[in-house]
Amino acid sequence: GCRTALCGLKSDNLSIMGTYIARSLKYFVQLTVLFAIVFGAMKLLNAATTDSLADVFLSARGLLMLGTIVVLAALYPTFGFVRREIAADLADDRDKILRAMEMGDYRLESEEDGRMVFRAASPVKRIVTLGEDALTVRRKDRHVVVGGLRKEVVKVEYRLKSMI
Fold first, then answer.
1. Own/partner long-range contacts of 152-156 (Cβ < 8 Å, ≥24 apart)
2. SS3 content of the chain, % helix, strand, coil (to 5)
3. I want to staple 129 with a disulfide (CB 3.0 to 4.6 A). Which of 12, 55, 112, 133 is the partner?
């Protein structure tokens, strides 16, 4: 018998949930590092009111900041990643799709069964996005669906629509 609450879920749903949790954790780390950098800069400029980062997190404002970071990290995958449908044909407009991606500093990593996966060509972009730099383009009826980081998908959508 199954002893966990997750037994009834399909493996695809578990994969999606795992991806969601991983993205949330990555964003939590990113926000925490950003907070530590800001605190360090304040300390260097003698603008900090305390010497200890522990004091900051144990204060009422610090706990509020930590709670805010947790909530933002938990919601980030919902608003940070999107899919956009564009009137284009994957086969007929393949060159335009490749050009639009190349203009955004993305290179084709794989292509199979009506699905193209692009990754950032720049290692810096990969590091900044914590490895969440993949953009997918897949066929859907007489359209293509571009999915990935919201900011990058919107740029690709704009470029591709202007080319088609």
1. 152/104, 152/106, 153/82, 153/83, 153/84, 154/82, 154/84, 155/104, 156/100, 156/101, 156/104, 156/106
2. 55, 20, 25
3. 133
